[in-house]
UniProtKB/TrEMBL annotation, chain A:
Keywords: Ubl conjugation pathway
Species of the source: Punica granatum
SUPFAM superfamilies, alphabetized: UBC-like (SSF54495)
Protein name (database record): Ubiquitin-fold modifier-conjugating enzyme 1
Gene3D superfamilies per the UniProt record, alphabetical: Ubiquitin Conjugating Enzyme
Signal peptide (residue range): none
Automatic annotation (TrEMBL), chain B:
Pfam families linked: E3_UFM1_ligase, UFL1, UFL1_C, WHD_UFL1_5th
Coiled coil: 542-584
Ranges that cross the membrane: none
Family: Belongs to the UFL1 family.
E3 UFM1-protein ligase 1-like N-terminal domain segment(s): 4-288
Species of provenance: Punica granatum (Pomegranate)
Protein name per Swiss-Prot or TrEMBL: E3 UFM1-protein ligase 1 homolog isoform X1
Gene Ontology molecular function: ligase activity; UFM1 ligase activity
A biological-process GO annotation: protein K69-linked ufmylation
Gene this chain is encoded by: LOC116211888
Keyword Ligase: yes
Basic and acidic residues compositional bias, start-end: 401-411, 472-496
Domain E3 UFM1-protein ligase 1-like: 564-694
GO cellular component terms attached to this protein's record: endoplasmic reticulum membrane
Amino acid sequence: MEGWDPNTKSTLTQIPLLTVKAGPRDGGAWTQRLKEEYKAMIAYTQMNKSNDNDWFRISAANPEGTRWTGKCWYVHNLLKYEFDLQFDIPVTYPATAPEIELPQLDGKTQKMYRGGKICLTVHFKPLWAKNCPRFGIAHALCLGLAPWLAAEVPILVDSGMIKHKDDAASSTET
Amino acid sequence: MDDELLELQRQFESAQQAKSSIRLSERNVVELVQKLHELQIIDFDLLHTVSGKEYITPEQLRYEMVSEVEKLGRVSLIDLADSTGVDLYHVEKQAEYAVADNPGLMLIQGEIISQHYWDSVAEEINERLQECSQISLAELATQLHVGVELLTSILKPRLGTMVKGRLEGGQLYTPAYVARVSAMVRGAARGITVPTNLSALWSSLQHLLQEMDGASGIAVEGSFFQALFNGQVKEGQLLGSLRAGVYWTPTVFAGAQKECIDSFFSQNSFINYEMLNKLGISQPVQFLQSRYPDGLALVNAFAHPSLTEMVNAAVEDAIERGSWIDSLSVLPTSFGSQDASKILSHCQSLQSALKSQKAFIFGDSYVFSHTFVKDVYDRIEKEMESFNVSGSTGMGLSDDISSRNNDRVSHDSSTSVEANDSPSESSGKHAMEKGSRKKRGKASGNTKTVIVEGTSDNQDYVPAKSKKNQKKSKDTSSLHVSEVKSGARKDPRSQEESLNVPSEEWVVQQIMTLFPDWEEQGIDDPHTILRPLANHLRPMLINSLKEKRKALLTENADKMKRILDDLQRKVDEAFLNLQLYEKALELFDDDQSTSVVLHRHLLRTSAAYIADTLFINLDIYNKVKSGLEVENSQNSELVSLSPGERIDLAKTFRGSMSKKALAVAEVLEGKRIETFMVALRDFAEESGIVLKKLDKKLERTLLHSYRKDLMSQVSAETDPVSLLPKVVSLLYIQFHNKALQAPGRAISVAVLRLKDKLDESAYKILTDYQAATVTLLALVSAATGDEQDCSSDRITTKREFLEGLMPQLKGIVLTPSQP
């Protein structure tokens, strides 16, 4: 579990673990899995709220629950930077982790693949594989996106690649 | 679509929509508070805790501190800082404000203490005090961890109210205890009847208290006792006087002291300082002088004037009677001689008598009237004179006066002793006193002491005297020798240094014998008076002696010179003869045995004669020189000494002379005449006698006279035995020009040597005569004892035969000399 900061780790351990090993094509089993995904995400969200650390909104974009969209944000220097968030559940899920995309930041940073998929740390993949059926979407967000935002947003802001929306508005006005 | 899933979707949605609780970080809060400060919304001081997580206002802090103090009574600031969680600096600052605001609090050594605390402490102390009856403040202070001064200042206002007791010298006492101790002090002080150092008393009281209280008792300070004591003295409960703060003299004692002194002084009209010392008066003289201003302060005692008057009367009486008095005998026994002299100096009659030379004071306390002293002097002088006259005429020799005087003294004392008809006892006493007196005189370093030299002298003093006494009664030769010895040993020093002055002892003895009533007058040691008297008389006596001494000295010198001249003459003669005889011995050098015999003969006869003459005459000379009496110096010519006597005599000589004399005496027993000559020469040199050497001319004249002498002797000789050696000697002079002294044993050899010098017939006569003489002598020696024996007949016939031969023999000698 090395490679993450202590806060992340403690949070991660508090997210309920999943049991059903099923992909989107497994029918009833996937539904069961989806339920568990929801429970885990509810627990995570509540946890974030109680810690005043709410940082994303997410919802299933299709009834099967294979595509998810939403928003995520990060507060830097008392300014809130908000980005669109989207990802698909891969067919081989849960053996393969979902690839989280931030389309607004595509091309703005090196830590990103084509199409706005974020680059995860080298530790992510083995950890995910080791916890194969037990980790879900909530874990992916917690382990993948949260650290990425914390690392990249300040750099992007400082380098001027992204601007706060107020600033952008004011700059456009001026 | 599964309901449950929908439900979950809805739940998730709501969860996401729910308002997240707002949390401010500590940092934000701190910033907020700072902001509020900046904006002057908070316009008072804010303190924060040590942890930095809390803000507190100073008022709150003060309130918390005060409440803590109220609760505990006594809190240290450090504890407060801990309990409030605020920095010590602020706590201290607030503590100062709090104490300044609240008069019931005090800040002492980092502690805030309330008055309530002190009240409770005082109550505790009171409880304990009532239990123990006394507590030391230091102990309390250490228990409470406060200073003694603080505790004292706290307790002072509470004494008598909350603490029922008394504070004294760092101790707390209950009134009951104080009362008890003061009762003890009063009792002890009243019990004292003699002057006492109070600190000793206090220490004993302390001891007592400690015993009463057991181990728990705290040591009571002496100052506490002293304070109680002083109070009681002030109140008049104790009577007496206190000196130097600690020396207490009770009134009772002072009264008794005065009474005692008064009564003694009025009864005896004197008082000893020693007695006052016993009574505890350390400076008796000042005390008595202030008390009896008309008294007389002496060395050992203090006397009333009446005592002086008494002495004065006694002295006056003695002077008028022409007698003497020991003032000590009139005075009390405790008076010393110094006291007596002091009293005497206050006697008016005596002072006037002294001025007019009517009286003398000897040895501090003895007063002699002039008439008495005069009388004594006259009598002693007469005694000395008569004695001197008899000594110089009767003995015909000048003598050591001191020893003569001693003789005289012992003689006199023995006669007086006989008169006293208690001989042994008193004579023993005399001797004893004399000895002791001598030593004392020496110890006191009397410079006038002349005779007393050392203990060795003193010791043989008496025996010598006794021997002289014996000698006087019966004169024997052995005693003569021993007397000579002791005299010789004693004389050298006494003679040189005394110069024949009458010694103190002698004068004392004279006075004793002339006035034998000293002892009857109850004086233990008459010498104490007699010595000063003798000292007084001696210079006069010495003066009178001096003139006589001069005459004696000249006479003595003549005598010595005469003896020496005489001796020189005798020795010269004898020594020349000896040398002559010695030459003759050279003839026999080749014959060893005969030579030895001849040598020894010569040593026995002539040499021994010279040695003896020298010894005896030198001895006489020495004696005369030292003034000893010598009975008959003429006799000594005839005396011949035995080897033992010779050695004894030799030993009496002084120093190296004695050594040389011993050597002479020794070689006399030897075999060689040469060694004797050497020793004799040494000795003579030492003793100042000149030995003349024999020269040719002198030798010839001597030989001639000797020959003549022999010839006349031979012609006159009638005894056949003694004729032979003389004839042989004469023959030797005729043929060899040597004077031979041959003993009987050597005669035959001497005769044999003459063989070739004499003609046949003469030699024949000589040998026959010699043979006949030998047989005669043999017969004589064999016939000792019985005279009726036939041997006597044979002796007479032999003698007649020899007598018949005598003319022939004489003829041999006398005839050849004629041509």
